[in-house]
Amino acid sequence: MQDLRVTTVQTNLIWNDVQANLYNIEEKIWSLSNQTDLILLPEMFTTGFTMEVNKLAEHPNFTTFRWMKQMAAQTNAVICGSYMVAENHQYFNRLVWMQPDGKFEKYDKKHLFRMADEHNYFTAGNKKLIVDLKGWKINPMICYDLRFPVWCRNTLGNQYDIAIFLANWPQKRALHWNTLLQARAIENLSYTIGVNRVGDDGKGIHYAGDTSIIDMKGEIIYTQSEIEEIKTIILNYENLLSYRNAFPANLDADSFEIIIN
Fold first, then answer.
1. Is 238 a catalytic residue?
2. Which is nearest to 10 in space by CA: 133, 174, 166, 140?
3. pLDDT over 70 percentage in the chain
4. What are the pLDDT digits (tens) for 56-108?
5. What's the CA angle centered on 39, arms 34 and 40, to 5 degrees?
6. What is the per-residue DSSP string for 16-74?
């Protein structure tokens, strides 16, 4: 199994300005000096966490989708981020997993943040996404999903090796963000990555970032607060496998079935 090079993009987001955010993030990506396998962007990376769906939601395969396709091809890396999509008279907070060959997967956010009325504007997804990259099994999710351990739970046979959470998580609840990321890593015997934004949004909400990469023991490999930073970390599969073999707590996990309401 090959090592995996993961790049996190912690950036300020320009409120409700798709083109400005695409230009800004593209410039950051081109600043990378070395090849990477996976580039992770925050939740709603083109707008910030806004509910202005009528103005900003895009149809599938439109501006942001095409940008992701182009960037993945040019960097020869998977690009992963979420943005607002309008489809079949509904709106989705949709994560797109775009491969260099133009093939893609999608995940619509399951847990909509009712404290910001997200559930009144968007339709919740009902399917988890597990993708393969260089032999690694990866489960990408979005922000508020982090609070729901049943949805995030790894299965008996270790369904995934890396859990990813792309977020717009406010600084005032940073303790929850940092604690839950470590908890998800420990309980699921997996690497866990949280990618968050920094700066203030159009509602005056402050985001400290705290983008983090955590190993299967809950130990922090990388974290950064407050500043914009693009960082590449190499994850080692042998370390993951060795720990799982030495401490196979997953073998005693409870079996269950998720019923979608």
1. no
2. 166
3. 100
4. 999 999 999 999 999 999 999 999 999 999 999 999 999 999 999 999 999 99
5. 145
6. T-HHHHHHHHHHHHHT--S--SEEE--TTTTT-S---HHHH-B-TTSHHHHHHHHHHHH
User: Residues 28, 43, 69, 118: which is the catalytic one?
Assistant: 43
Confirm whether 80 is a catalytic residue.
no
CA distance 69 to 244: 35
Domains and their CATH numbers in the chain: 4-248 (3.60.110.10)
**Active-site residue, selected from the candidate residues 106, 110, 118, 143:** 143
Report the DSSP pairing between strands 198-200 and 206-214: antiparallel
Q: What's the pLDDT score for residue 260? A: 81
**The tokens of 82 are what?**
């979420």
Catalytic-residue membership of 152: no
**Whole-number Cα distances in Å, 113 to 19, 69, 123:** 25, 28, 11
Whether this prediction's pTM lies above 0.90 is answered by yes
Catalytic residue among 109, 110, 118, 152: 109
